[in-house]
């Protein structure tokens, strides 16, 4: 590890003139230290906004709005721990006033910042000091308005001692027929390219959140996201061109058309649990001895029997979380009871010596209520 760094330091003044080296300011030690001192600042950025309207949409559900809901839940959970200070970039009423100012009056400051970091990064790549890594997944290109906002947030972060930036999104993919649900499901976490100043700490934190989310939710089955954690050098949100030194993650919590987000009875549970597991992932990264409860939904009290064909049901959503935790079910919580849940219930019944009917009757209800 030492050798490349030394080489870097020696080469830099020779080849790159007045360039600034990318120091790694945020390591897991600095982050844990901030947390212990009750001064860990998290900035949550609900992706997109109502002005640019470029987020995913499905049957009247706007990603920009759903992102705010999840961000607010995450803020609520983080604030149960006084060691976190949490800021949202925007809520239902729009961006924080100081960000609005920055996007408007501060526009030239932001463009200067953007052009400066890009120039430095280009020169580092041109000088062979950094590799020109290609993004693994093609993203919707960012408009100049969004570019100002995203670089603006990074600019603001650099001046306001934020320790972690979390971008909240729900996914979609090009080519889906607008009126129909698409073929992919599941979550994915994007992290900065490892060459960037915030690459390492972000990657470590991503692993901790990934472990929590995958306990109850399924990883994206979009082929390029199937590893669950994807390094991306081009996302401004993550500090492309070295525009962020702080750890940053962009989480795609699932595909916008998935039934657990569309059904209004199930959506609050899905959003809450996704936020809770993210919170837990952050907390466990900062404090390995953390002993918070495993889930925000479980334990749950089941009262009614459920079986195949039922849909959009909170009891089924909770049942599926329990089946995920028991590792007898791999289809994720949807709120719908179809074949996959049926098989999961049979596996649960076999595991605990109940006759495998695939129907949640009195005995299975009793089992579920005793386990969770
Ligand atoms: Zn998005």
Per the CATH scheme, the topology name of the largest domain is Aminopeptidase
Helical stretch tally:
12
**Overall residue-averaged pLDDT value:** 92
Q: Domains counted in the coordinates: how many?
A: 2
- Show unreliable segments: 1-20
Taking strands numbered 1, 2, ... along the chain, how are they ordered across the largest sheet? 4-1-7-10-8-9
Shape: globular
Question: Which CATH architecture of the largest domain would you pick?
Answer: 3-Layer(aba) Sandwich
State which percent range the strand residues make up. Answer: 5-15%
CATH evolutionary superfamily of the largest domain: Zn-dependent exopeptidases
How many strands, which pairing sense, and closed or not: the largest β-sheet? 6 strands, mixed
- Compressed to H and E, one letter per element, the order equals HHEEEHEEEHHHEEHEEHHHHH
Bound molecules: zinc ion
Distance between the termini: 46 Å
How many whole angstroms does the radius of gyration measure?
22 Å
Could you characterize the architecture of this molecule?
With 372 residues, the protein is α/β, with parallel strands linked by helices. The chain has two domains: 20-286, Zn-dependent exopeptidases (Aminopeptidase, 3-Layer(aba) Sandwich); 314-371, Muramoyl-pentapeptide Carboxypeptidase, domain 1 (Orthogonal Bundle), CATH 1.10.101. It has helices at residues 2-16, 28-36, 63-78, 97-104, 107-126, 144-158, 199-216, 259-262, 267-286, 314-325, 339-351, 362-371, and strands at 40-46, 57-58, 61-62, 84-88, 90-91, 94-95, 164-171, 188-192, 229-232, 248-255. The protein has a six-stranded mixed beta sheet with strand order 4-1-7-10-8-9. It has a two-stranded antiparallel ribbon with strand order 2-3. α3 (63-78) crosses α9 (267-286), α5 crosses α6 (144-158) and α7 (199-216) packs across α9. It is globular and about 65 Å long. It binds zinc ion.
């Amino acid at each position: 590890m030492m050798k490349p760094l030394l080489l870097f330091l020696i080469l830099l003044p020779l080849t790159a003139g007045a360039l600034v080296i990318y120091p790694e300011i945020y390591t897991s030690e600095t982050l844990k230290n901030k947390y212990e001192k009750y001064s860990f600042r998290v900035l949550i950025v609900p992706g997109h906004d109502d002005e640019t309207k470029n987020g995913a949409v499905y049957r009247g559900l706007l990603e920009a709005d759903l992102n705010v809901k999840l961000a607010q839940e995450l803020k609520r959970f983080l604030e149960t721990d006084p060691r976190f200070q949490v800021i949202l970039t925007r809520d239902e009423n729009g961006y924080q006033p100081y960000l609005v100012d920055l996007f408007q009056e501060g526009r030239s400051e932001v463009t200067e910042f953007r052009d400066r970091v890009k120039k430095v990064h280009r020169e580092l790549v041109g000088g062979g000091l950094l590799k020109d890594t290609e993004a693994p997944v093609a993203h919707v290109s960012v408009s100049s308005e969004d570019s100002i906002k995203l670089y603006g947030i990074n600019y603001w972060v650099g001046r306001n001692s934020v320790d972690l930036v979390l971008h909240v999104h729900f996914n979609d993919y090009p080519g889906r027929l607008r009126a129909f649900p698409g073929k992919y499901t599941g979550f994915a976490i994007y992290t900065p390219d490892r060459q960037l100043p915030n690459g390492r700490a972000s990657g470590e934190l991503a692993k901790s959140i990934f472990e929590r989310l995958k306990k109850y939710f399924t990883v994206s089955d979009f082929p390029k996201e199937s590893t669950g954690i994807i390094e991306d050098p081009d996302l401004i949100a993550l500090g492309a061109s070295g525009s962020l030194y702080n750890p940053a993650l962009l989480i795609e919590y699932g595909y916008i058309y998935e039934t657990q987000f569309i059904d209004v009875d199930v959506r609050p549970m899905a959003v809450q649990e996704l936020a809770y597991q993210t919170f837990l992932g952050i907390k466990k990264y900062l404090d390995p001895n953390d002993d918070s409860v495993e889930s925000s939904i479980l334990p749950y009290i089941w009262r009614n029997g459920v079986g195949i064909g039922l849909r959009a049901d909170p009891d089924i959503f909770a049942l599926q979380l329990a089946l995920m935790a028991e590792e007898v079910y791999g289809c994720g919580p949807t709120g719908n009871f179809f074949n996959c849940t049926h098989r999961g219930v049979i596996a649960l019944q076999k595991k605990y010596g109940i006759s495998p009917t695939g129907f949640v009757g009195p005995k299975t209800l009793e089992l579920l209520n005793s386990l969770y």
